[in-house]
Every structure is written in structure tokens, then in C-alpha cells.
Amino acid sequence: MAPPPAKLSGFHRQDHHWYSDAGLPSDIIVSIDGVNFHLHKFPLVSKCGKIARKYDDSKNMNEKSLTMVLEEFPGGPDIFLIVAKFCYGFRVELTAKNVVLVHCAAEYLEMTEEYEESNLLTKSESFFHKNILRNWKDCILALQSSEPILSRVENLHLVDKCLNALSMMACTDPSLFGWPMMMYGSFQSPGGSILWNGINTGARIRTSESEWWFEDISYLSVGLFERLIKTMRARGMRPESLAGAIMYYSRKHLPGLGRWQGKQGGKTRTVASFSLTPASGTTIDQKDLLESIEKILPQKKGKSFCRFLLGLLRVASILNVSETCKESLERRIGMQLELATLDSLLIPAYADSDALYNTDCIEHIVHHFVLTESNLSAFSPSSLDPQASSSSSESLRKVAKLIDSYIAEIASDVNLKPGKLCSLAQALPESSRSLHDGLYRALDIYFKAHPWLSDNEKEELSNIIDCQKLSIHACAHASQNERLPLRVVLQVLFFEQQHLRTSLAGCVNALGGERAPAPAAHVTARGDTASEIVQRDGWVAVVRENQVLKKDMDRMSTRVGELVEEFTKIKQEMKTVTKSHSARDSPRLFARKIGCKLVPRFSDAQPESLDRSLCTPRASIERARHSHKSRHTESFS
Q1: Rg of the chain's alpha carbons, rounded to an integer?
Q2: Please, what is the Cα angle at 636 between 397 and 628, to 5 degrees?
Q3: Closest by CA position to 74, among listed 54, 47, 99
Q4: How many Å apart are CA 474 and CA 478, to the nearest integer?
Q5: Lower CB count within 10 Å: N or C terminus of the chain?
Q6: Is 146 exposed, middle or buried (0-12, 13-18, 19+ CB in 10 A)?
Q7: Phi, psi of 455 (to 5 degrees)
Q8: Could you tell me which of 166, 44, 36 has the C-alpha nearest to residue 105?
Q9: Residue 74 and residue 599: Cα distance in Å, rounded?
Q10: Whole-prediction pTM value?
Q11: Residues 179 and 136 sit within 8 Å (Cβ to Cβ)
């Protein structure tokens, strides 16, 4: 059973057929996408040049009725119904959602002033310029409606006009263009929503006036959004605002990016976006979206923007975008690597890799950073711009500390190859690290997580550390670290002794300088001297602690030598006592026979203490150095 006919302003529909309510038999049938319109020739021929020519051709062929099939008609049957109503003299309503389609349909049917004054093409163009281009929301809706027929709309320059109007309104006060910014003031609901004629619209109030348009343009398709950003940039929009709009759009349409950064786009709605619908009916290709976003990214630096770029790189690894896109993202991140954080650098390895993290992209980023810093140094020498040189050195130190922390974080991965660790550590120049404590910590973690490494592999990995750049605390730990190769331990002990001698010499010089009479000084000089004494006393305490540790470590290695020396002295003393005194008159010998040991006098113990003082940690180091000289000659050269 057929559904009842639907009547709509002089036309009614039955299944896939539309009929006029005029009551006269139709003499022309127009077919669009399988829907047939049974109409009359006079209303159509008098206003549509395309149909008039078709009708003239059919008259020459003596055809009583004309059937036309309109291929690729803009807007389909719904828009043609509006055109038919206009031709029959019925009232038609032009809106922001249909005006672009109606204008293209009028241009398709050639409804110009040549056939009738105030024809549909003129009316739709006038409505577009007077109503649409002056209202922010209507411009967004018009752009959305043009996406299905974008190629035809481009020929009429309607898209460019909408984009120019939007960019102009975004750069100026939105309250001048029909957007109810006044309701940000007194007309607010208790919950903070915007009221429209006393009705809660659900739109949240924005705290930043420069961000009011981010949500609205996020409903556009990727292509239109890209063109709008380019138009805004050409008009002089600030890079900060462009970056904010791009970040908002990306977080809304790239779910992985929003989850990782803990933010979801599209939750705050404005009055304009309250009546908008998502862009196009098809799903946005995230790979194409990311590659398009990368092309319009501004040259901007900032902590949040750097984190956003690293998030894009993370998503790019998942979507397997082009190498050009990845390389561009790595270059952009490398230009501001000093602003990155450790957690944002931990990009998982999504490709066919056994390792947990993608170290290749981080290495590429570091190389771009080093290249950028070297270029800056070449164009801004320290003699001409000392401030730029200081800033560059500070950036190098920050990045070195960040990369050392990154290596320490990934060192526990059992599948991390030694070569990857070395290449990451050596990616930065030697001058970027004043201390190698971070590298030592990372190497210690790696040795602990990879106990199966061979001695040769450990030796090669240890070459990334300069023992002379280890702090006194790192030296104390390394000298007792059983996971380190013997060569490294010996080097650490050697340089630690050098540090100790230097520190002690400095303390002695400072004390000697204080004993000398000094002329009258100012109060500030006395304060500086006091601070130096406090610092010196701290160093003395550290040195004493280190000496105690060294004595405990060297005790086992020197014990044998001490026993041999003591036994020799006892034998010599026994021979001397036997020759000079009798056994009965020698209380010392008698005491040894009965198993007692007398306390030596100060004069007797002084030579022994001097002999024992020769067996210092330095002497033990020299003996160890001599015993391993044949094996480790190169490391000490």
C-alpha cells in the first residue's frame, strides 16, 4: 500500500514522484537521482535557459512531452524542489544551509536576468552577500553546505568569500558581526552558561577572548580548515592564535592525541557552534588529517606547543604517515627540544621492533637540535652577541640533562641494543655536559638490566663516560660498583685521588692565606671570607669521609704487605735483643715469650708509623696500576 501523499506548498509527492497541484497534465518530466518531477513547460522555460534549449530541441523533433535527466545537479532533488517552487511563483525560503546550493543550481540551470528580471541567480547572490557574509555562524554553515559540491562552488568564488569574511571577523571584535558577545556580561545563568533571550543555550563562557572561534571552525572539513588557516595567516593573524586553533582542531579529530594529552576537544560549545553539525557525513581520514595539519603548523616555540608536536609525532608513528611528514615534525621539535619534557619523549615503538621505545626518532630530533644550535652559533659568535651564546649554552645543558634522563629511563628495556644507547649518548657534543653523572647513572641501570653483556661490550659502553667529569659522589659510588669493568674502576679511583689532592691543596692554601696578616677590609669582604670558610669546611668533611672509605677498600689489599713488614721487624728486633742483653734482663723479649705485647714508646713507634703511612690509598692505586699496566696501558695514556 502506497503511503499517503505529502503536500508542500503546491506540490505533493507519491513514492519517487513529485506532482504539481495545478491540476493540469504535465508536459515535461525532470529526473534527478531517480526522483521524477512531473511539471509544466511554461514556468520552467520562462526562467531556466538550460531547460528552454532542451525544450526547443524537442520541438524540432516533434515530441509531445519532454523528459530530461539532469546529471550531477547541485543539491539533488531537495534543491530542485526549491527551484521548481520559485519557477511556479511560490514563496521560497533561503537560509545559510541552502543558499550556496540554490545559487549553484540557478547557475547550473542558467536562471539569469536574460530570461527574467530578479531571477533566482540574482536573488540568491544578493542574499549571500547581504546576510551570509555578515554573520559568523551563517558563514560556517554556508561553508559546510558547500562541501559536497566544492568544485562547482569554487568556480563561483563563494568559498573564498566565506573564508575572507571569517578571517576578518576572527581578527576583529565578534560582537560587531552578530555574535552575541554581550551575553558574556550580565545575561548569564548561575551555572555560567550563556543565556539567549533568557533561555539556557548550554554554551559555556570562554575565559579568553582570542579563543572564541576555535570550537566553531573545528566543524569544518580538513580541506576547508586548512584553507581558512592559510587565509588567516595571510591576513596577519598572530601565530599564537593560529597554533591554538590547530591544536584544538587536532585534539578534536585525532582521538589518540586527545587521550595522551589528557584533553578532549569539543566539550566547550559556543552560541555559534550550538546549532552546527560535524563536518561532512564521511569519516575523516586521520592520516590525511595529520599530514594536512603538519603543512599549516606555524613557526612557534613554547612548552605546550612542543608537547603538542611530540604528540603529533606519536600519532604519526601509529598511522604510518609519510617520511616527509615525520621528518618535518622531528625538525620542528628539534628547534625547541630544550622545552620538551621526559614523559613526552617516551614514544613507544609501534613498528616491527623488539624495543619498547622508538629511539630512532629521538636521535633524529637531537641531530636537528644540534644542527640548529650550530647554525645559531655560526651566525651569532660570542664576540658579537654574548647573550645569544649564553642562551645557546644553556639550551645545550638543558637538552643534555633531558637526554641523559631519557637514556636512564629506557635503559631498563632488555631489548635495547648497546649501539642505540651509545648513539644517543654521543649525539650531543662533548661540551654540552659539564658532569657525566647522568650518563653514569644510565649506564649503571643498563648494566643492571643486562647482566649477560660481555666484558668487551661493557668496555665499549664505558667509553661514553669521562671519569674526569664525575662528581665526588658519583666517584664514591663507581669505585664500589661491581658491575663496572675493572679498567673503569681503576680510572675512577685514580681521578678521585686527583680530586682529593686538589681539594686538600686548595684547603691548605686557603688556611695559609688566612694566617697571613691582612689589611683593613670592608664588611662585605669579611662576609665573603666567611662564606668561603664554610664552603671549605664542607669540602674538608667530604674529603675525610672519602679517606675513610678508601682505607676500608684498601685494607684487604695492603694487609698482606703490612704483615710481611711486621714479621721482618720482629725478627730483626729479636736478633738485636739476643746479642745485646740476656733473656732474663729483657722484659720485652720475656713478654713476647709469654704472649704479651707491650705498648711501644712514642720514640719507638714513630718509625713504624712513618713506614705504615707510606702504605696509603695512593700507594695501593700505584700497585694496582702497575699490576694492570700491561693490560690497560691505553686507558691511562
Answers
A1: 43
A2: 135
A3: 99
A4: 6
A5: N
A6: buried
A7: -65, -40
A8: 44
A9: 115
A10: 0.69
A11: yes
Which of helix, strand or coil describes residue 11?
A: strand
**Measured distance CA(225)–CA(242) in Å, rounded:** 11
Find out whether 416 and 431 touch, Cβ atoms under 8 Å: no
3-state DSSP percent of the chain in helix, strand and coil, to 5: 60, 5, 30
pLDDT of residue 567: 72
pLDDT in tens, 280-328: 444 678 899 999 999 999 988 899 999 999 999 999 988 888 999 999 9
Structural contact between residues 128 and 99, judged by C-beta atoms closer than 8 angstroms: yes
The pLDDT of residue 615 is: 43
User: Grid coordinates standing for 438?
Assistant: 647522568
Give dist(CA 118, CA 128) in Å, integer. Answer: 15
Nearest CA to 30 among 40, 22, 42, 43? 40
Kindly give, in sequence order, each residue whose CB lies less than 8 Å from that of residue 321, ignoring residues fewer than 6 positions away: 287, 290, 291
CB 147 within 8 A of CB 221: yes
C-alpha cell of residue 123: 536573488
Max Cα separation, the chain?
160
Closest C-alpha among 506, 500, 501 to residue 542: 500
- Give the pLDDT confidence score for residue 489 in this predicted structure: 85
Distance, CA of 331 to chain centre: 12
| Closest to 446 in 3D by CA, of 490, 385, 384, 404 | 404
What whole-number distance in Å separates Cα of residue 381 and Cα of residue 387? 10
CA distances from residue 221 to 146, 148, 163, 177, 344 in whole angstroms, order as listed: 11, 11, 13, 23, 29
Which residues face 193 on adjacent strands?
A: 204
Q: Number of H helices and number of E strands within the chain?
A: 27, 8
Nearest Cα residue to 513 out of 528, 496, 523, 492: 528
Q: Assess contact for 246 and 293: CB atoms under 8 A.
A: yes
Helices (H), 483-522: 486-515
Cell, residue 162: 566565506
Amino acid at 83: V
Of 235 and 575, the structure prediction assigns the larger pLDDT to 235
> What is the dihedral sign for C-alpha 169, 173, 174, 175?
negative
Please give the mean pLDDT across all residues of the chain: 76
Please, what sign has the CA dihedral across residues 550, 552, 555, 556?
negative
Q: Give the Cα separation of 163 and 32 in Å (integer).
A: 31
**CA 204, CA 271: separation in Å to the nearest integer?**
8
Segment holding 152, helix H or strand E = helix 150-155
Place of cell 684487604: 556
Q: Cell digits for 413?
A: 628495556
Q: How, if at all, do strands 66-69 and 28-32 pair?
A: parallel
> How many residues appear in the chain?
637
Q: How far is CA 444 from CA 45, 409, 441, 449, in A?
A: 88, 12, 5, 9
Instruction: Count the Cβ atoms, other than its own, within 10 Å of residue 347.
Output: 21
Strand partners for 29: 38, 67
Task: Please report, as a single letter, which amino acid is at residue 309.
Answer: L
What are the DSSP calls for 52-97, one per residue?
A: HHHHHHHHHTT-SSEEEE-TT-TTHHHHHHHHHHHHTT------TT
In what side-by-side order are the strands of the sheet with 66-69? 6-8, 11-14, 17-20, 35-39, 28-32, 66-69
C-alpha cell at 463: 667509553
For the stretch 440-471, pLDDT in tens is 999 999 999 999 988 888 888 988 888 888 88
